[in-house]
Design brief:
Rossmann fold; Alpha-Beta Plaits; 10 helices; about 25% strand; disordered C terminus
Length: about 300
């Protein structure tokens, strides 16, 4: 089984659409993970029945025991997140603001503060026409530390092993924060999707630097490549400077958003279909090429 993470330094570059197309090209069974839990939308392209949702808990919430509280207001004054309110002579916790830091418990002289696990969201497995899709949804106001992403990947690996799937495809979150770390750890290849714009070029550099720190093989797909030839040249040079293979260039086509809105993917668009297929073929060649024998590696070094 090979694990491929499709990620981007910034949002809106087309990584989710590309992941969906890769899943179609990979053949059944493939296991999918939507690790962009802050804005999960891979499921929109893969209709199917969901298993019963499982709750995910992360962090903690403060609770005030009204029977013990003497309304000294020390916790109210100490909370820097403005998570406590005095309501009808009772202290109430604003759940959306509480970070579970514990300072209220430290300053309380009556031991009136306790903590309970915080519901961060829920996750489930959907059966699609290509294989299982593991996806999640954050609760309103909940933060994503990467633990939920790790849970999704752990579940997906188990499914892939049980099904004998050759490919585990992960639609990663944008940026370089903790959720990205959880998405790329232990992967066989990071496919960085970018576009020929200054902001995308800047964020591509950060993502490729992250891959270097994780000692993770990385490659680049340039989406909307024909929008700006100068920008395309800069992205190509940046990828080469980082030692990242350019898997391919996907042309811009205004028909793509219309097809995506109708639930169809990239592979129904002529020109785009061929470019995406070339990108996937490059991924397969890279990950399924036989390893060189020791003497071959030595000869190459000479």
């Amino acid at each position: 089984m090979k694990q491929v993470v499709v990620a981007s330094g910034k949002g809106g570059t087309g990584k989710t659409s590309l992941t969906a197309a890769f899943a179609e090209l990979a053949g059944r069974p493939v296991v999918l993970v939507d690790a962009d839990v802050d804005a999960a939308n891979l499921a929109l392209l893969f209709p199917g029945p969901d298993e019963p949702a499982r709750e995910f808990e992360a962090g903690r919430l403060a609770r005030i025991d009204a029977a013990r509280c003497t309304l000294c207001k020390r916790c109210l004054e100490a909370c820097r997140f403005d998570a406590l309110r005095l309501v009808e002579r009772r202290l109430a916790v604003r759940e959306i603001a509480c970070e579970g830091c514990g300072v209220c418990a430290v300053v309380c002289p009556e031991d009136a503060v306790s903590f309970e696990p915080q519901r961060a969201g829920e996750w489930t497995v959907r059966e699609t026409r290509f294989g299982p899709l593991v996806h999640a949804e954050l609760a309103p106001g909940a933060g994503n530390s990467g633990k939920l992403v790790a849970r999704l990947r752990e579940t997906a690996r188990g499914l892939a092993e049980r099904l004998g799937a050759r490919w585990l495809l992960i639609d990663g979150p944008p940026g370089i924060g903790c959720p990205v770390h959880a998405s790329v750890t232990g992967a066989d290849l990071l496919v960085a999707v970018t576009e020929p714009t200054p902001s995308a070029l800047h964020d591509l550099g950060r993502l490729l630097e992250l891959a270097e720190r994780f000692r993770l093989p990385a490659a680049v797909v340039l989406n909307k490549a024909d929008l700006d030839p100068a920008g395309t040249a800069l992205v190509t040079a940046a990828a080469a400077a980082r030692g990242a293979e350019l898997l391919g260039r996907i042309p811009f086509d205004p028909a793509v958003p219309r097809h995506l809105a109708a639930g169809r993917g990239l592979l129904v668009v002529p020109g785009v279909r061929e470019a995406v297929t070339d990108c996937w073929d490059a991924v397969v060649r890279r990950l399924e090429a036989p390893a060189a024998r020791p003497e071959e590696r030595n000869d190459a070094a000479v």
